[in-house]
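Lab channel / #folding
Pinned by the channel admin:
"Please post every new chain as: sequence first, then the structure tokens as a reply. Keep commentary short and put observations after the output so the thread stays searchable."

First post following the new format, from NK:
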Amino acid sequence: MLYPQRFNQFTREHADTVAAISCGLLLFLGWFALHLGWLGLAFLLLPAAYVIGGYESAREGLTTLFKEKELDVDLLMIVAAIGAASLGLWRREYHLIIDGAILILIFAISGALEGYAMQRTERSIRSLMSLTPDTARVLLQGKEEEIPISQLKVGDEIVVKPGELIPTDGIILSGYSTLNQAAITGESLPVEKTVGAEVFAGTLNGYGALQIKVHKPAQSSLIQRVIRLVEQAQTEAPPSQEFIDRFEKGYAKVIVVAGILLATLPPFLWGWDWETTIYRALTFLVVASPCALMAAIMPTLLSGIANGARQGILFKNGAQLEKIGKVRAIAFDKTGTLTTGQLQVFQVISVSEYTSADVLKAAASVESYSEHPIGKAIVQAAGDLDLVGAIQVQAIPGQGIVGIAQEQQIIVGNAVFVQKYVTNLPEELREMAQSWEQQGKTVVWVAKNPTPSPSPLAGRGAGFDVMGVIAIADEVRSQAAATITRLKKLGVEQIVMLTGDNEETAHSVAKAVGIDQVYAQLLPEDKLDVIRLLQQKYQTVAMVGDGINDAPALAQASIGIAMGISGSDVALETADIVLMADKLEKIAVAIHLGRRSQSIVKQNIVVALGFIMLLLVGNFLGSINLPIGVIGHEGSTVLVTLSGLRLLK
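Reply from TO:
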């Protein structure tokens, strides 16, 4: 029983190959029977070869003809083969039946080879699908119990033992280990993880046991989003492929009309005999078909998507792979993109009547309600202080935050914002703030009003005192400068930095990474305007960002690139390309991959059109027969498909 099951499984998985082998065997036996003069046996074997080898093509061609009212290239091949067989029976030149069978055989072999070539790309892409286990080991009342991933809930605690795959995204509650994140982020070296660190589904645990808390639904995990996006990328045709598809439909009709004219006019115009005329018309149907042209684009782009996924670059569809190679200008967000985004309080200076702890405590009381990285850094620095909850907290994007704590109105923000409430900023603090900003640090001013107004934003300029200033430092990414240099060498014409931070801090970071053009103190809508201005001059513009405030600019840009780990969900959903490991140097890799894909596509189109023209001229001059035409036609198709697979390396 085992062998029939394996045979049935093999035939299902390799149906095209089995059909091609069977067709070839029947063709050989039919030819041998004709050679021996056994016409009855030959006329039994050769039709079987036609049916087995051409069934799938005929089915697809007829389905397209009747359902979509369009002519299909597959159907043209079958018509040409049957036409050759009919001509052979009519003229009793049975070698023409062999020619038609050879046409179908080569077409079947070509289909099998193309199928295997595309399966290689599919396997490379779909290897993502096997990265997550089906079950997770959950702690329930102190006992471990395995449940399906789909049943996990936010707040569940799971146990992952050494050598196991992480089943879903979560936060480590206890344990220490190294995780291989290559499948998700493209990082070749394992990463150390301990309590408080986030782990991702599909990564491989090393030597330590981990207890992990689920902090988001399993279907929202990073790997599941990647899988959905990759599946979407496979089904969406880029503009170039859509153009080729439209071209093919019209081109097939032209081939049929031209074939009819070639089958009827030459005897009257050039005195050809009818056998030669019909034979060349049938050969024309074969060699003029645009199979190679149809295969010039999608195998290449799918291979590029698979290559990018292996390197931690997620292209959401083939169109983005096409566009990234044409980028002429790139805009970078600063915080979390050119910098690590891991802000820390560098220094606190207070005026004489307050202490540094007073300044931190006041700022943290209102910033504890903020999701902004600066606010989180202040709250983290004030962790040991006894914080008091604030009320009527209101954040003003790009400027600051206000609220009431211990019946005192607190203002935290940049100098421009605080000056709306404070008449004069202390000169010594101004000088210190300016010095910090020149060093690339962000300065936050803290002021309070002992007699708060009913509304947090009311009572401006009355009764507010400056408590002090807080310097926030954000480390520039180690690879940022090298990435900018590499992008310039690749010929990117304009590189700019966009930030809501002040001019001094912005220019300090820009100088450190090698960016000349800086747009500072921008609100989200201002970033959008800058992208539009760049598009007017450079057409294809990329935007690299990570936060919610970058989402409008990411959506407006020709190519939106998001940081996969530090990026917000909104940024990830809006962007066209995601850098899974937050590695800026992958941008240069993506551009190179896009340019290489465009180069290969152009090469494939030239090869496809070149073969068609060469075969058409050869057919008109009578230099090729039907089998040679089929070999040239199908050979070019296989050659172009294999050429596209070069991007897998």
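NK: The chain has a mean pLDDT of 79.
TO: also worth noting, The chain is about 55% helix and 15% strand.
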